[in-house]
Design goal:
The protein is mainly alpha-helical. It contains 17 helices and no strands. It starts with a helix and ends in a 9-residue tail after the last helix.
């Protein structure tokens, strides 16, 4: 039975094994996003100054570690390889799989550090965020880079992304299960639950990366044998020009001339901000806009659906991408976000069912857009390779440079959101005062009761005006992005020809 199971695993398609890596990330990361702020604010009682210091340091590190790790990983790919010293595609894939096999288990271990108080809340908050994000960055960079390294055609990449979305949807079930064990007063059950999730992730990363490594080691060996046979047929080395290694400054200069890259990161910065704004303030919107109107079970259902539906919805979006292209689908989602927000603004906060649908759909479509943007980055990897005539695509480095500009949106989301809420309503989430009883069963004090309508109105305006503003800015920047249609087809054709051109020149016999 065990041997049969191993045989079935070994014969799984590469796309399925690649997609399964998303499962072992999402089962942990969704729980992290939902509970880490609440844990430190409500359980560990972190003070406001420590929270802001931690988020500020995290903002800096979160932005810098992506290009830093990408540069360390892919700097060798920036220069055209010396004659006879090329790096083959199987070798690049194996390099990324080795990184995933090491950093995946470390990522799971760093996840556990949040749920046990082992230092001063402010210090633990800072260290846990930076350590967790470091390993998450390494995993994300190499996983996303594999999307560009394993396939070139849009059809193959959407197939890989399809399985990523499918497994991410399955991983989002951890949000439903976490709701059953989450208790601020008794943290033991939640800690056991997190340990079990981490163990599943460690085993999954180890098994999946090992299966993929075995597969590409065989491909790499066949490639090596072929190159050894052809080595005597190379044209003399002096006929191939030697090319210098590109420095970081030169690479940044190349990126500064990459027009589509610049417009994309402008749009994606806003998208990352909106995604994390929805994640951070989703519980707050439920509490102050709907807590008196819906049951606890309905609230938990909306919460779970908001994490699972984006991945399931993305399966449909990917089928649209095959027919219409990623550019058109993303643009349509921006128009949809704008239209839904305007309708909700005109309807007002008293339309309970419409408000439920909007809160859930706003997160679903926003997260769905984020899932599609990796396909755009892989197209930018192709364009970067063609524009600069590289012999090997520096995919992890380009993903890292995208993150350098867009990752600050993760930190800006809670900071700007809490500032806007406090400026408009006077409500401060860090103040432990009678306002905490606004939605509790205890009698409300007069100050809390007086502030509640203003707080509800402030939450509603925050809910609708943030997506309206984001959608307008994104439509403006996305209209300047030209890597679609005939230009995209031309870039992919040129990458195919450049890749095929890496084969050694053979003397006429």
């Amino acid at each position: 039975m065990g041997l049969r199971l191993l045989a079935c695993l070994f014969h799984l398609p590469t796309a399925v094994i690649y997609g399964s890596l998303s499962l072992f990330v999402s089962i942990l990361h969704n729980v992290f996003l939902l509970y880490y702020v609440d844990t430190f604010v409500s359980v560990y009682k972190i003070d406001k100054l420590s929270f802001w210091i931690g988020e500020t340091v995290f903002l800096i590190w979160n932005s810098l570690n992506d290009p830093l790790f990408g540069w360390l990983s892919d700097r060798v790919f920036l220069s055209t390889q010396q004659a006879g010293a090329e790096i083959s595609s199987p070798e690049v894939v194996l390099k990324r799989l080795r990184a995933l096999s090491h950093n995946g288990p470390l990522f799971a271990i760093s996840f556990l550090a949040f749920w046990v108080a082992w230092a001063h809340p402010g210090l633990q908050f800072l260290l846990c965020l930076c350590m967790y994000d470091s390993f998450l960055t390494m995993v994300d960079l190499h996983h996303n880079a594999l999307l560009a390294d394993l396939a070139v055609s849009a059809k193959d990449r959407t197939s890989l992304n399809f399985y990523c979305s499918l497994f991410s949807a399955i991983g989002s079930l951890s949000v439903f299960m976490s709701y059953a064990v989450w208790n601020k007063e008794d943290f033991f059950s939640f800690r056991i639950f997190c340990v079990l999730l981490a163990l599943c992730s460690i085993v999954g990363f180890t098994l999946s990366t090992q299966l993929l490594r075995q597969r590409f080691q065989a491909d790499g060996k066949a490639r090596w044998d072929q190159e050894s046979t052809l080595k005597e047929l190379y044209i003399e080395k002096h006929s191939v020009p030697q090319e210098k290694r590109i420095t970081l400054a030169e690479y940044l200069q190349q990126l500064s001339r990459h027009r589509n890259f610049l417009w994309f990161v402008c749009m994606n910065l806003i998208q990352v901000f909106h995604c994390h704004f929805n994640s951070n303030f989703f519980p707050l919107f439920l509490e102050h806009l709907l807590s008196d109107q819906i049951s606890v079970s309905t609230g938990s259902f909306l919460l779970g659906v908001s994490y699972i539906a984006p991945h399931l919805n993305n399966l449909y979006f990917l089928s649209l991408c095959r027919r219409c292209g990623v550019y058109a689908v993303v643009r349509g989602l921006f128009f949809l976000k704008l239209a839904l927000s305007v309708v909700m603004l005109l309807a007002g906060p008293d339309q309970v069912y419409l408000l439920c649908i909007f809160i859930a759909s706003n997160r679903v479509f926003t997260e769905g857009t984020c899932k599609l943007l990796n396909l755009v980055v892989t197209d930018l990897v192709d364009e970067d390779l063609v524009l600069n005539r590289r012999k090997q695509a520096a995919s992890a480095l380009l993903f890292g440079m995208v993150a350098l500009v867009t990752k600050p949106g993760q930190t800006f989301a809670p900071l700007i959101g809490t500032w806007l809420l406090c400026a408009y309503t006077g409500y401060d989430i860090f103040q432990r005062n009678p306002l905490n009883n606004v939605v509790s069963a205890q009698p409300k004090l007069e100050s809390a009761a007086a502030l509640e309508p203003t707080l509800r109105q402030g939450c509603f305006y925050l809910l609708v005006f943030v997506p309206i503003t984001c959608a307008l800015l994104q439509l403006l920047s996305w209209s300047q992005f030209s890597l679609h249609g005939k230009r995209l087809q031309m870039v992919k054709a040129q990458r195919q020809s450049l890749t095929q051109g890496q084969a050694p020149d053979i003397k006429t016999i």
